[in-house]
Design goal:
Elements lengths: L22 H13 L3 E6 L2 H5 L12 E4 L4 H15 L4 E7 L1 H5 L2 H10 L4 E6 L35 H6 L5 E6 L3 H13 L5 E6 L3 H4 L6 H10 L6 E4 L2 E4 L16 H4 L10 H23 L2
Parallel strand pairs: 1-2, 1-3, 3-4, 4-6, 5-6
Antiparallel strand pairs: 5-7, 7-8
Helix pairs in contact: 1-7, 3-5
Length: 298
């Protein structure tokens, strides 16, 4: 899309309390541009609850309901029911971190998806509980240092939440990242148009303080996650899987950069041994083998 076709309206305002270089705020700006003003946002406990600020001086220009950690999808389900009862139409968005999605909020999300509740759920994944002190979550990658995995780093691999949502047989599941806003914008617009059931988007959102990198590197690290194959851009629309953006060219392992190019820029991985890096590379290669099978079925 050309720049001229993007909305000029802003629904996420400058002067907010987010950290410099926050990947989540970069993504949220584009998400709200894609959804527009006729939207209602549900936010469980997470960084966004803090950096959006307090009413009436919120940094978000649409109605927002701040809700308990585990209850985002349940609250969104209630809003959908209330709108229907009143004959009103609006896009209902859940905007939640990885802790509130892959761990604490997964039960309410799974229930809503099973009921085919009509809202968009977006997880912005900064790969730890950043707002409460950088504790390990189910989305934290293998080897990453957190305050609860301070010596060797996490010894388990990242939970694949998008694949879990694909198993719910919902009409739209996609991945995105802050470093490729055109891809993100297109996917949010598509999710908005596919009404009638739950739609899910999972955004990788680099976090400078949590990942221990200079804030000017957010976009570079976001793009390296894709170029190394650590993060795969794709969408599953009505059961049809397709790679998107730069990931379309990366089925050939020779075209993927070594994972070390991504890991070496982040302090959370500075302790890794050569064996650790090789284990992460093997994990990435295994993920791509699974993706290759999904592509071959189409």
């Amino acid at each position: 899309m050309s720049a001229q076709r993007y909305p000029l309206e802003e629904y996420f305002y400058p002067g907010n309390a987010s950290c410099p270089g926050c990947g989540a705020t970069m993504a949220l700006r584009w998400v709200l541009k894609a959804l527009g003003k006729k939207s209602i946002m549900v936010v469980p406990a997470c960084c966004t609850s803090v950096f959006m600020g307090l009413y009436p001086k919120s940094a978000i220009g649409i109605p927002v309901l701040n809700i308990a950690f585990a209850a985002a999808a349940a609250a969104a389900s209630g809003i959908v029911a209330a709108l229907k009862a009143r004959g009103k139409d609006a896009t209902v968005l859940v905007w939640a971190g990885d802790g509130g999605t892959v761990d604490i909020g997964i039960q309410a999300l799974s229930g809503a998806a099973e009921r085919q509740t009509d809202f968009i759920y977006i997880c912005y994944d900064n790969e730890a509980y950043m707002n409460t002190g950088i504790q390990r979550s189910g989305a934290t990658p293998y080897g990453a240092i957190t305050t609860t995995t301070p010596i060797l780093g996490k010894r388990e691999h990242k939970k694949n939440m998008p694949r879990i949502m694909i198993a719910h047989d919902i009409p739209y599941v996609a991945t995105a990242t802050s470093g490729y806003p055109h891809d993100l914008f297109r996917k949010v617009k598509k999710a908005k148009e596919k009404r009638g059931a739950t739609r899910y988007i999972h955004i990788l959102a680099p976090c400078p303080p949590g990942w221990r990198f200079d804030s000017k590197l957010t976009v570079k690290i976001s793009r390296l996650a894709v170029r190394t194959g650590m993060w795969v851009l794709y969408e599953v629309e009505d059961g049809k899987f397709r790679l998107t953006g730069p990931s379309k060219a990366l089925l050939d392992p020779e075209k993927r950069l070594p994972v070390e190019e991504y890991l070496k820029l982040q302090g959370r991985f500075s302790h890794l041994t050569r064996e650790d890096i090789e284990e992460i590379q093997r994990w990435v290669d295994r993920q791509w083998e699974l993706i290759s099978k999904m592509v071959s079925k189409e």
